[in-house]
TrEMBL record:
<dbReference type="GO" id="GO:0009007">
    <property type="term" value="F:site-specific DNA-methyltransferase (adenine-specific) activity"/>
</dbReference>
<dbReference type="InterPro" id="IPR023135">
    <property type="entry name" value="N6_DNA_MeTrfase_TaqI_C"/>
</dbReference>
<dbReference type="InterPro" id="IPR025931">
    <property type="entry name" value="TaqI_C"/>
</dbReference>
<dbReference type="InterPro" id="IPR046817">
    <property type="entry name" value="MmeI_N"/>
</dbReference>
<keyword id="KW-0680">Restriction system</keyword>
<feature type="domain" description="MmeI-like N-terminal">
    <location>
        <begin position="36"/>
        <end position="173"/>
    </location>
</feature>
<dbReference type="Pfam" id="PF12950">
    <property type="entry name" value="TaqI_C"/>
</dbReference>
<keyword id="KW-0489">Methyltransferase</keyword>
<dbReference type="GO" id="GO:0032259">
    <property type="term" value="P:methylation"/>
</dbReference>
<keyword id="KW-0808">Transferase</keyword>
<dbReference type="Pfam" id="PF07669">
    <property type="entry name" value="Eco57I"/>
</dbReference>
<dbReference type="GO" id="GO:0009307">
    <property type="term" value="P:DNA restriction-modification system"/>
</dbReference>
<feature type="domain" description="Type II methyltransferase M.TaqI-like">
    <location>
        <begin position="488"/>
        <end position="649"/>
    </location>
</feature>
<keyword id="KW-0238">DNA-binding</keyword>
<dbReference type="InterPro" id="IPR050953">
    <property type="entry name" value="N4_N6_ade-DNA_methylase"/>
</dbReference>
<dbReference type="GO" id="GO:0003677">
    <property type="term" value="F:DNA binding"/>
</dbReference>
<dbReference type="Pfam" id="PF20464">
    <property type="entry name" value="MmeI_N"/>
</dbReference>
Amino acid sequence: MSLFQKSVEKKYLNDLDTAVIDKKYADFLKHFGNPEIQENIRNSKEEQYQGEFLIDLFVNILGYTKNPTPNFNLTTELKNISNSKKADGAILKGDDATAVIELKGTGTTDLDKIETQAFGYKNHHPKCKYVITSNFEKLRFYIQNAVDHVDFDLFNLTREQFSLLWLCLAKDNLLNDLPLKIKESSVLQEENITKKLYADYSKFREAIYTNLVKNNPETDKLLLFKKTQKLLDRFLFIFFAEDRLLLPPNSISEIVKQWADLKEKYDEYFPLYSRFKKYFGYMNTGYNGKKYDIYAYNGGLFKPDEVLDNITIDDDILYEHTLRLSNYDFETDVDVNILGHIFEHSLGEIENVQAEIKGEKIDSQKTKRKKDGIFYTPKYITKYIVENTVGKLCNEKRTELGIVDEEYAKGRKNRKKEIVRTLDKKLDDYRNWLLTLTILDPACGSGAFLNQALEFLINEHRKIDELRGQLLGGAIIFSDITTDILEKNIYGVDLNEESVEIAKLSLWLRTAQKGRKLNTLSNNIKCGNSLIDDPEIAGEKAFNWQNEFPDIFKNGGFDVVIGNPPYVFAREKISENEKEHYSKNYNSADYQVNTYLLFIEKTVEIIKPKAIFGLIVPNAWLMVYSGQGLRKYLLEHCKLNQIINLEGYSFEGVNVETIIILSQKERIENNDFQVLLNKGKEFVYSHSRNQQDFTKNTGSEFKVFLDDESISLTRKLISGSVDLDSIVQIKAGLQAYEKGKGNPKQSAEDVKNRPYDYNCKFDESTYKYLDGKDVGRYFIEWSGLYLKYGEHLAAPRTFNLFSDKKIIVREITGNYPQCIISTFSEDLYLYNRSNIAIIEREGKNINLKYIVAVLNSTLMSYYFMKNTAKSVRKMFPKVILKDLRLFPFKEIDENLQIPFITNVEKIQYLHKEFFDIRKSFIDLLKSKIDLEKFTNKLLIWYEQDFKTFLGELTKAKIKLNLSEEAEWMQYFNEQKEKAQTIKSEIEKTDKEIDRMVFELYGLTEEEIKIVENS
């Protein structure tokens, strides 16, 4: 795995002082290149050599000063800040660790095994940026996270590799954060290359397609577009292959040059495309020439194609674009990860063009691919999922076979032949088992997960070779195993034909080797509808898993399923026929259909008993009503291993927050699983839950973010309480516009033009109209909108919701501890579904002011955060009707409600005063000063000092003279003091209401602290 972008790395390496590198490399070889010393190191235990190792490498070579020498910047056994565990070493900047070092003996051959331990130390040192792990023979270096790293074989380090070691770890470089700067430059360079290459790639595709349509009018446009993509795939493979020396260098540019020379110098013309077709033929069948040979890579990409073999393309199109793309260095500048992003972007564009060809309307704001809920998954997520699915099975198998690294590190010397044979056979058994693993992505897209699984398996086979090398001695011979992995381990399905072809191409690019045929992959990567096997519903895309993969299902199904299935809601894009099919065939389609729910169920259906899966799905699934069928199904058939909350944006352009679910098809009673949270690109343990607890919830809700403390507190809140909906009525606001609704029925134009909206009181049926943002905690700040009420509205609701006493609850919630935003009102306001109404229930002596006090409290925010589906979102968290109706409330006597009522009346009055002071100040400012737009700081003038206030006026090019300044200063300070006094009184009253609510629910001081610090 590459830590730096190659061209950026090369630039920094070229800046190194060669004389210094030569000297230090010579010193390095005297120790780490000495065979006798190497043997002694191999025979040393971890404790015997770890202190000396730090001196031999970090002090003597890399220039650090080790404790206890004065001004030291290298120390041993650095204790964690928050517990008693210690890293073996650390590099210090002042008193803070900037790098932690974890060491093992040479018997630990697999440095992956100590990665989690090392990062555990890093996470206990807030300013730590680097992690170094080593077994004295190998050294691994990480920056910030475990997504990528660089490995150094210290016993076989070349001068070039030593230069990179020096660049990363030399004292002056690391303490000045040069490695981090190189990584940041690499990320920027990759982004720039990705954008530029994609722009050129996209222009090439557009130019070829347009030209093909012009030159081949008799051919179907959609077919021509598909062939355009195939032609681009061919060119891309050749660009990649020629820069990685699988083909003669500069093949494409040489073809173009020869073609131009023949035309200009010898007046010999033939179409440029005919020359490229000949080269494609060489790629398919092979070629032996005088100057160079071309191997028959084939794989299906270059086999004869009736359409591509008979089309015509203008010379200038091919000339311009092939030369432009051939200028990229596909060896150093463009790696397979960059291509992965390009492929995924490309799929979105492909689907838009296809829709256009079919005459479908294109949403300019979203590509069809994004509307279909499909996104490129970041590497740190694919890596984690693969390591905790495929990797988990591998760890279990190694344990079952008794493969222990330290036993192989002992070698064969002075050991019985039978022991050596047994150890060697274990490696054969493990390799044979590895080649039986079947790994599937059922919605594979451009192949991000499949490529990650491929990379993992290649590394696993390399580890076998390394263990065998240690056991038997001699040079390590790495097995050429990629062909077997592609044919036996990797499987994918996608609805989109182009996705399938691009997934194949991405796998070819990652595994292509000089002189070796490409795998066909057609038997492994297939196009079809993973969810529907009925041709009457899905047509030619109907996909019967047992028929498509008969050998796998003879063995009971797949071993591993991984992926990021599409999130498509039934109400948006699923036909009635599809809905009916899903309802008949899936447990998870018993309410609202969403494709990701179906994918999870299909996954469980097509895997073996005890097989494992790791999928990314929306986090709302944990508790939403539509997910209860699937949750019950999983609890009956599977054991959960981990649920990881991916807070905020996980994928570029996605507005759905997600979780990772890692689970196995195995029913275990009282199964505990881990809940993890993401911290940047790392996942950290939060707490454990027992999945049996979820069976007790009404809808089998997975309340995974409740730990033991919050479970206990939630039970306490519910005990002796009633559902809020039993003592009041809770209703949705009106819906003004919807096509086909209202009397007369509204048109699409009505929905677009909003004819019943006004900015003044138009007539007697026009009323003030609130949007969600107009509602605050204990106040309303009406933005000036009006709406004409009547049956012409899509869903007008009953008028008493707006005219009577009510609580208005804003649907979009606030930040903790003030999540619930609601206010009591007796004024007539219309409001839409971005607000929820609470009105009195007949026969209940419950004052709405008591309800709003409890609802706005910190305690109810705590309950909301821990117990509702849409509270866990960082993007637009919501309180919804169903959840609000279940809030636990105390049904208390009228006299006990009085203190709450009094405080609500007080706080609402204070808010009105606060609003009046703020508004009068702004109104005066507007009347005295000509300002088009007020800055945020001017709008919250009461939070500024007078100097800042003047500064904001100056920014707006408003200049006051000294007399005006003095007058404004006095007025500003007087009004600010009044505003701050009222604000303080509001906060004091808020705290008093919180105290009363805590007392009402009987919380102890310790429990109150838990709520307040949550």
